[in-house]
Amino acid sequence: MDSMPGQHETQRPADFLRQILGRPAVVKVNNGAEYRGNLVCLDGYLNIVMEGTEEFVGGELKRRYGDVFLRGNNVIYVGPAPAK
């Protein structure tokens, strides 16, 4: 498909998620907490496994975890971690 100048090509969510696998990511869940760590794997239900994970509540670090499993029905946002 040709795109017009100045327009961005759309990207499917699955393609985006594949691009950030194995990289630092931020996952926000429905209680407002954010988990930051390396995105190890995820499935079609958006169940997520992360390693080296930190939990932030209100922007403040609350806990450090090794590996975490986040159930997909609690996930509201997944994105790349901001550069430090």
UniProtKB/TrEMBL annotation:
<keyword id="KW-0508">mRNA splicing</keyword>
<keyword id="KW-0507">mRNA processing</keyword>
<keyword id="KW-0687">Ribonucleoprotein</keyword>
<dbReference type="Pfam" id="PF01423">
    <property type="entry name" value="LSM"/>
</dbReference>
<dbReference type="GO" id="GO:0005681">
    <property type="term" value="C:spliceosomal complex"/>
</dbReference>
<feature type="domain" description="Sm">
    <location>
        <begin position="12"/>
        <end position="84"/>
    </location>
</feature>
<keyword id="KW-0539">Nucleus</keyword>
<dbReference type="InterPro" id="IPR047575">
    <property type="entry name" value="Sm"/>
</dbReference>
<dbReference type="GO" id="GO:0046540">
    <property type="term" value="C:U4/U6 x U5 tri-snRNP complex"/>
</dbReference>
<dbReference type="GO" id="GO:0005688">
    <property type="term" value="C:U6 snRNP"/>
</dbReference>
<dbReference type="GO" id="GO:0003723">
    <property type="term" value="F:RNA binding"/>
</dbReference>
<keyword id="KW-0963">Cytoplasm</keyword>
<dbReference type="InterPro" id="IPR001163">
    <property type="entry name" value="Sm_dom_euk/arc"/>
</dbReference>
<comment type="similarity">
    <text>Belongs to the snRNP Sm proteins family. SmF/LSm6 subfamily.</text>
</comment>
<dbReference type="GO" id="GO:0030490">
    <property type="term" value="P:maturation of SSU-rRNA"/>
</dbReference>
<dbReference type="InterPro" id="IPR010920">
    <property type="entry name" value="LSM_dom_sf"/>
</dbReference>
<protein>
    <recommendedName>
        <fullName>Sm domain-containing protein</fullName>
    </recommendedName>
</protein>
<keyword id="KW-0698">rRNA processing</keyword>
<dbReference type="GO" id="GO:0005730">
    <property type="term" value="C:nucleolus"/>
</dbReference>
<dbReference type="GO" id="GO:0000398">
    <property type="term" value="P:mRNA splicing, via spliceosome"/>
</dbReference>
<dbReference type="GO" id="GO:0008033">
    <property type="term" value="P:tRNA processing"/>
</dbReference>
<dbReference type="GO" id="GO:0000932">
    <property type="term" value="C:P-body"/>
</dbReference>
<dbReference type="InterPro" id="IPR016487">
    <property type="entry name" value="Lsm6/sSmF"/>
</dbReference>
<keyword id="KW-0694">RNA-binding</keyword>
<keyword id="KW-0747">Spliceosome</keyword>
<keyword id="KW-0819">tRNA processing</keyword>
<dbReference type="GO" id="GO:0005732">
    <property type="term" value="C:sno(s)RNA-containing ribonucleoprotein complex"/>
</dbReference>
